[in-house]
Q: What sequence folds into this?
């Protein structure tokens, strides 16, 4: 008990100096600002394009919708997998639960496979651009 009490006393004694050091370091790091020459120039499809061709515009919008659908699918799959893992974990740790840790591990492996597949689909959709 005395060790814990002495630890918190030392922590409270050095708190002000540590916070001043961290605050000063943060101010010094941000004082110069970011180097604008190191920021790459991004070309946004459809925005940086000066095309008036309606087919190209429709193609850009279609690719954007496919990418949005892939991202929403990935987010939905992550949500479903996490929800299922939480319910199986609660079932495995309850006293009256019928499912054991084997079900949880199988759900974990299958869930990761589903998530990686959906993220691979997002990668394919983003590569359309």
A:
């Amino acid at each position: 008990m005395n060790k814990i009490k002495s630890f918190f006393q030392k922590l409270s004694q050095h708190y002000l100096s540590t916070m001043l050091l961290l605050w000063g370091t943060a101010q010094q790091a941000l004082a110069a600002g970011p180097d604008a020459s190191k920021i790459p120039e991004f070309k946004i499809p459809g925005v940086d394009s000066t095309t008036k061709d309606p087919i190209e515009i429709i193609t850009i919008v279609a690719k954007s919708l496919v990418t949005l659908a892939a991202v929403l699918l990935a987010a939905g799959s992550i949500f479903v997998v996490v929800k299922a893992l939480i319910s199986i974990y609660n079932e495995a740790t309850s006293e009256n639960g019928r499912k054991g840790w084997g079900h949880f591990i199988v759900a974990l492996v299958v869930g990761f496979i589903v998530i990686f597949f959906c993220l691979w689909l997002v990668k394919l959709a983003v590569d359309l651009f």
About this structure: The chain has a mean pLDDT of 79. The helical segments are 2-31, 54-93, 101-126. The longest helix spans residues 54-93. Residues 88 and 104 are 6 Å apart (CA to CA).
